[in-house]
Amino acid sequence: MARARSEERRAEILRAALEVIAERGYRGASLASVAERVGLTQQGLLHYFPTKEALLVAVLDERDQWDTGGAGLSTAAWRMDLLASLVEYNAMRPGIVQTFSALLGESVTDEHPAKEFFTQRYALVREGMAAALRMEYGERLPGGLTPEQAAPLLVAVLDGLQYQWLLDPGSVDMPGAFRDFLTLLRPE
Amino acid sequence: MARARSEERRAEILRAALEVIAERGYRGASLASVAERVGLTQQGLLHYFPTKEALLVAVLDERDQWDTGGAGLSTAAWRMDLLASLVEYNAMRPGIVQTFSALLGESVTDEHPAKEFFTQRYALVREGMAAALRMEYGERLPGGLTPEQAAPLLVAVLDGLQYQWLLDPGSVDMPGAFRDFLTLLRPE
DNA sequence: ATTATCTATAGATCTATAGATAATGC
DNA sequence: ATTATCTATAGATCTATAGATAATGC
After folding, report:
1. Cα–Cα distance between A108 and B151 in angstroms, integer?
2. What is the pLDDT of residues A26-70, one digit of tens each?
3. Inter-chain CB proximity A115 and B167 less than 8 Å
4. How many CB atoms lie within 10 A of CB A135?
5. For chain B, what is the HEC assignment?
6. Domain A1-59 is classified in which CATH homologous superfamily?
């Protein structure tokens, strides 16, 4: 039973870390503020994650689960209509989107501990998207683009819309805009 | 002459601040590290900008100048070929792009001092882009999109590509990908 | 007088280590 | 024994204020 308790505690801590990172970013998040949310002291938290960076790594690992719907990144399991649903779902959980967007933004700074993670992740995602586009629309997309050319644009639209939407949810219809983009990509 | 000296000093400090923000983000940037770069103590720097936030505001104000090529954000002065050139130019100054991207990423976190700035800026930019798209391509774009529908996508692609490019410049051809996107937008 | 800088310092934080104490599991 | 937490604390930082000192501009 102890094992289970411990796992629960870890999960609680990760959830709290997600929140605090959404609010302040990774660099701005203090272990003490995460600890406080789960009723621990900062030192108590370090019993579960020995360093701040270890906590971040755990957050990123976990995040990869939900985000892909468990499907995994590299598989060509993306389908455009499912992607649109994912965006719609994301529009209902601004907290998660905010955590992710804050981390991506920070990750481009020097020596950021999430840099490697995002670099590899994006390479995989572009690959997966290209495969999915090929499967769905074939070898040529509008404008004569190849799936490999369209994939980074698809990813860019997903990320870029998140920033605009987080800054001004009332002015930006994220799911609608994404569907608009898919319209552009669909061969007539 | 004293005035001129002072202005120079300010400009030096702003340049240093840009660099440090690129490296560590705003929250991670310390006044002391900015001061050190211009050969001042942290307290000496506070003579020119009374608070850290005042320094950030000055950085953001200045940045708006170059970024628009001085043209201003709200004008419909954007032309798609000029935008493509701007992206090409940006690809030659990763430091600036990194400053901007780090700040945008951070700005979605709670109570970030640049949040208001980016929110208003993006509203203006979307407006300007829509006007530019209308002027250039008319009322209907591929897929039947209106200029107002395409504008947020255009902005999203610009931002999103910057993140992918900063993380992995060797794998992402930012200017090329942007031109690909323009191909999608151009009515046949 | 004003401007440019500096030293000193207050008052908060922050991460991480050391080591104690209590509870749980064999 | 191991696990979960705590107190104490070291050692860095960080921003900002106070007040001194030197140089510059009238």
Report:
1. 25
2. 999 999 999 999 999 999 999 999 999 999 999 999 877 666 555
3. yes
4. 14
5. CHHHHHHHHHHHHHHHHHHHHHHHHHHHCCHHHHHHHCCCCHHHHCCCCCCHHHHHHHHHHHHHHHHCCCCCCCCCCCCHHHHHHHHHHHCCCHHHHHHHHHHHHHHCCCCCCCHHHHHHHHHHHHHHHHHHHHHHHCCCCHHHCCHHHHHHHHHHHHHHHHHHHHHCCCCCCHHHHHHHHHHHHCCC
6. Homeodomain-like (1.10.10.60)
DSSP one-letter string for chain A:
-HHHHHHHHHHHHHHHHHHHHHHHHHHH--HHHHHHHTT--HHHHTTTSSSHHHHHHHHHHHHHHHHTTTS-SSSS---HHHHHHHHHHHTT-HHHHHHHHHHHHHHTSTT-TTHHHHHHHHHHHHHHHHHHHHHHH-S--GGG--HHHHHHHHHHHHHHHHHHHHH-TTT--HHHHHHHHHHHHS--
The pLDDT tens digits of the residues spanning A83-140 come to: 999 999 999 999 999 999 999 999 999 999 999 999 999 999 999 999 999 999 999 9
Domain ranges in chain B are 1-59, 73-188
> How far is A98 from chain B, CA to nearest CA, in Å?
7
CB nearest B106 (choices: A102, A126, A153): A102
Cα B21 to Cα B79: distance, rounded to the nearest angstrom: 30
Quote the crossing angle between the two packed helices B80-90 and B115-137, to the nearest 10°.
140
Q: From the CA of A142, how many Å to the C1' of C7?
A: 67
Phi/psi-derived region of residue B112, left when phi > 0, alpha when psi is between -120 and 50, beta in every other case: beta
For the four alpha carbons of B140, B178, A117 and B67, in that order, the dihedral sign comes to negative
Q: Does B153 sit within 8 Å of A181, measured CB to CB? A: yes
Q: What is the four-CA torsion angle of B110, B113, B117, B118, rounded to 10 degrees? A: -40
